[in-house]
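user: can you give me the structure for this one chain? C-alpha cells are fine.
assistant: on it. calling the predictor now.
[tool input]
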Amino acid sequence: MGGSLNQTGILHKITRNLPDVDCRFTPFFAQGFYAFLAKTGALNYTIMGGAHRRATLKYIRENNLVLDEEARQGPYDLILTCTDLIIPPRLRESPIVLVQEGITENEGLAYWLVKNLRFPRVMANTAATGLSDAYVYFCVASAGYRSLFIHKGVDPRKIIVTGIPNFDHAASYRNNHFPYRGYALVATSSIRETFGFDDRMAFLRKAKSKAGKRRVIVKLHPNEDQKRAEEEIRQVFPDCLIFHEGNLHEMIANCDILIAQNTSAIFTAVALRKRIYTSIPRKTLRQLLPQQNGGVSAERIAEVCRKVLDTPPVLERHPKRIFGRSLFPDLLEGL
C-alpha cells in the first residue's frame, strides 16, 4: 500500500526482490470517517488524495504494476506498507510488515496526546510511526532509529534494522543529469498542509542569509500549496529557479549547501557530507542516518517478507481489532 511517491517507490523496490510472489499495489486508502473526508477533498494535502494519489496511480501505470485499488481483491497473505498511522479494517486480518519511509517528526503535544491519551495516531503524523503494534515486523533505517522507536515504546522484538530503499546508497545520486552545480538548495516542506506551524517567510529570509551570493534553487514539497509557496518565494528570491518536480536527492548531490525544513532527503545531504542548515541538530542526524549499505535494503526487507510468508498463520498474530487503543480511532478508521 503506497502513499507518497517515495513510499510507493520504496515498496516497488522491495517487490522486485520477490519475483515469484503475486504483488499488487494500491494508493493509500482509508475506511470509515477518514474515507468520507477523503471523498470530500478535505484530505487532498495528505497521502489519501490530491497530488500524492495522482502521482502514485501514475507510477503504478508507468511501471506496469498490478493495481488493486483499496485492496478489494484481498484478503492477502501479506500487507507491505510504509505507515501505520491509519490501518484500514480491510487489512487488519493479514500480517503486516511495516517499513520506515524516512525521517520522523518531533514528539510535540500531538504525540503526547496520542501516546498517553490514545488520540488517533494520525494527529502526531510520523512521530507516531510504529505505535500501532499491528505489524509482525518493523523494518527501520538504522540502529539509531531502532533505539528511538524502542524509546517510544515499540516492541524491540519486532524491529529489524534493514536500512531503507532510496536512502541507503546516497553516493549513487552523484551520477545524475541535473544540469546545475554549486548552488544553494532550499527544500520546503508541507508543514502547514499537515496542520503544523510554519513561519515560511522567516525560513526564506534565513535561507537568503545562508545562501550568500550563490545561485539559489528551490525545490517545493509536492504536497504543499504550490501557488502560495511560489508567491512567497518570489518575495525573497525574485530570480531563483523553482522546481515543482524533480529528484531532490540528485539536486542535493550537486549543491554546495542545503537549507531545509523537515524532509527525509536531509539524510542524503548528511551522507554526502554537505553543509546543512536545518532545525534538526547535526549530531541527531548523524545518529539516525540510514544505513549506507550500497542499496541492498530492499533485498533485506524482501527476506523479512519471505519469513512472514513462510510462517504458518497464527490468528492471535494479527487480530481484526487493534487492541490497546481507545474506541475513538476505531470509529474514525472504520470498525
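assistant: here you go. The domain at 5-168+292-333 is CATH 3.40.50 (Rossmann fold). The longest strand covers residues 96-99.
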